[in-house]
Amino acid sequence: RHYILDLMRVTPRDSNYIGLQHRFCVLRPELVASFVEAESIKKSPTEKVPDAPTESNGQEPDDIASGSDATAASVEEHDKSDETPVSTPAESNDMTAEILFNPNVFTEYKLAGSPEEIEVDEALVKKVGSYLLDTVIPKFVQDLCSLDVSPMDGQTLTDVLHSNGINVRYLGKVAGMIKHLPHLWDLFSAEIIVRSAKHVVKDILRQSPDHNIAPAVAHFLNCFFGKVLAASSKGSTGSPQSKTQKKSSESASSKKGQSAFSQLTSDGVWSDIKEFAKHKYQFEAPDDVRVGTKRVAVLRNLCQKVGITIAARKYDLHSTTPFQPSDILNLQPVVKHSVPTCTDARKLMEAGKIRMAEGTLNEAYALFSEAFSLLQQVKYILA
Fold this sequence. Notes:
The protein is 57% helix and 2% strand. By secondary structure, the chain is mainly alpha-helical. It has three domains: 1-41 and 102-160, no CATH class; 181-230 and 261-336, no CATH class; 337-382. The protein has a two-stranded antiparallel sheet. α8 crosses α11 and α8 (182-206) crosses α13. The longest helix is centred in the middle third of the chain and has 31 residues, at 115-145. Mean pLDDT is 79; it is low at 52-92 and 233-254. This is CLU central domain-containing protein. Residues 42-94, 234-260 are annotated as: Disordered.
């Protein structure tokens, strides 16, 4: 027998996005693993080691130093006596196995089980959603503020979000919490604008025929970076009736192909982008977002996300129409896929970059060499 595995809903639904319009909003596996680990730590029996005596007990520092050996010996004996019941693997496995999620809750499917069981499953999924909002995202913002996490571009920002179990749809919420950091605010706002523009240009491409793809993309980029105004209706008032009827058949076919993008203006495109950003990411784009964005970085990010190949020349992105249809060389499909990566090697590479930025070149070289050795052993074993 052949089976179809629905790997989309391996993890449960996001309780913060409920409804038919959010039916594909699921939680990330990293968040589920983090939640299970946190709940296991809460449920595990722990005993605190009694604090060492301090000066507040009336002892002098010399007395504390003389009695440190006896205290250390008693602490070691206490730890050895309690080591077995605390770290029993069977108990921790049982506690982890108790946390089971139902991926069918908050969906249109009919759930099996009693109403009490369904209510318990829904409460557990809601608890994960609250854990994401109340614990994971504030901890991530704290790491950003303390520079423990320093994303440099949109790709590294996406990777950091995913590694912490945060979906990209929470970009707007995170951006609202780091407004006091200008470099991060610019990065988050640019990423949201690019992702919103990607959906707008994809809607235009779906309505454009194949022979008009290059003009459609060029016109959108001109509206996005330049200043395209509404087309004026020239010749509509002084032309005779016969000429209008004669030219109607000739212009009908051209209007069909160009109707998807020829009427676009800069104000209309940016209005759609801001509306999509507000709907998808809960992000209120500021009025000066068109002026404040770094145009070259945004252009590169947008072309990578949509699959647009443009000619390598110097563009005047501050002009009215910086792009021509001849500048659009190719449009390649961008498909999400799962590429196996060596996480240990990636961590070593990131640690090496940090050491190199700090100036410790010897440590950076050692980390890079170890990462290269791991990559050779893991990724190129079939070559």
